[in-house]
């Protein structure tokens, strides 16, 4: 059994959960500790004790530790990528790419640790000096999803440590292997005991205990909308700072003047790569009627050429769905799309040489924006293709959603691009690029039902991971 990491020690648990490969269910990856509320309490107490000194440590100490973590991730990228592909189902090139991204994030925040700025401001009163500084929040609970099992933990753990906070980290119970390898690297980086703690297990047990623990002052969560909403309510009882990244139903608008091969590639990437298991996936393709049929025909042809298979096999472009439960949910939405009147192309479960959760990408042709399949996040390789009369109609359709994470437009018009950037009700807007795929040094987050709280990543991470202090002093 792979243990938890609490107060600088590897700690076994009474029970464990098995971890299997969604590409090959006969492949048992291992057994991972199932934590308890008592484990969370020990981790929180250790973190609270460590925060008394870690928060006052030299920025260079923190920078050096983060640099060591980033370098170790790069040195072990193939091992980490192999584990990620094996347990999550992402293709091996995507998995290694995600691992490199995690290393880049740690290295970015290594530099940010020595660039934590403040302000010296003249007071409106004579002989009074004003200083505005940033200080660590304290102990932060980090709860991460299974779809990016190293990148998302990295963009939460790295800034937390950078700004002097201590961490209680709960990874998704579907992908504990990648998190455990990351924890091993962090454990070897020379942090004081209690600064970083890993408690694996079910969200209903470990996640709930983290949100409710009185020593944990802030919660950063990425996951589903229902869980995020419940977490916000619970965290409010303890007046905890919260940062929530939840769902998306992201539109990609394709105008009549778009470069069609570029648009097809952007839509394929956004809708189906990573098996569509991205909160930034292009799940609504809103296409001008003048090119609608040509676009659909080309998209269907291109989708049919995608190779679905074992995540570790050379040439695989679409890996398996992460779990049986997720596959069953995806298939139910495929059936629903047909019931709602869309023409369904693909979407069926596939057999392969190994027993796994394989699904052909699904296109819902002649979809309407008011269909449930066009409004509810499926989180699988399914895309609704919705016709639009003109730019204004396309923009209105794009914004008619409860979500607001990412949006995109493919167009050759500077006017359309500019208007879409200004009027799209999303936190991130892409022009002639897939809706999925972001840089690590700039803000990540959305609007409406997609996000709550300050942005993740880049320098904007300081807004969540620090507390602002204003100090006045009288010079006499």
Structural notes for this entry:
The structure is a single chain. With 476 residues, this protein is of the alpha/beta class. It has two domains: 4-246 and 450-474, 3-Layer(aba) Sandwich (Aldehyde Dehydrogenase, Chain A, domain 1), CATH 3.40.605.10; 250-431, 3-Layer(aba) Sandwich (Aldehyde Dehydrogenase, Chain A, domain 2), CATH 3.40.309. The protein contains 15 helices and 24 strands. The strands form seven sheets. It has a seven-stranded mixed sheet, with helices on both faces. A six-stranded mixed sheet has the order 9-8-7-10-11-23, sandwiched between helices. It has a three-stranded antiparallel sheet with strand order 5-6-24. α4 runs parallel beside α5. The longest helix has 21 residues, at 92-112.
What is the strand and helix layout of this fold?
Blueprint: E1 4-6, E2 9-11, E3 16-21, E4 24-33, H1 37-54, H2 59-75, H3 77-88, H4 92-112, E5 119-122, E6 128-136, E7 139-143, H5 151-162, E8 166-170, H6 176-187, E9 196-198, H7 203-212, E10 218-222, H8 225-237, E11 241-245, E12 250-254, H9 260-272, E13 282-288, H10 292-304, H11 324-339, E14 343-346, E15 349-350, E16 358-359, E17 362-365, H12 372-375, E18 382-388, H13 391-399, E19 403-404, E20 406-410, H14 414-423, E21 428-431, E22 447-448, E23 451-452, H15 462-465, E24 466-474
Parallel strand pairs: 7-8, 7-10, 8-9, 10-11, 12-13, 12-20, 13-18, 17-18, 20-21
Antiparallel strand pairs: 1-2, 3-4, 5-6, 6-24, 11-23, 14-17, 15-16, 19-22
Helix pairs in contact: 1-7, 2-4, 3-4, 3-6, 4-5, 9-10
Family: Belongs to the aldehyde dehydrogenase family.
Active site: 245
InterPro entries: Ald_DH/histidinol_DH (IPR016161), Ald_DH_C (IPR016163), Ald_DH_CS_CYS (IPR016160), Ald_DH_CS_GLU (IPR029510), Ald_DH_N (IPR016162), Aldehyde_DH_dom (IPR015590)
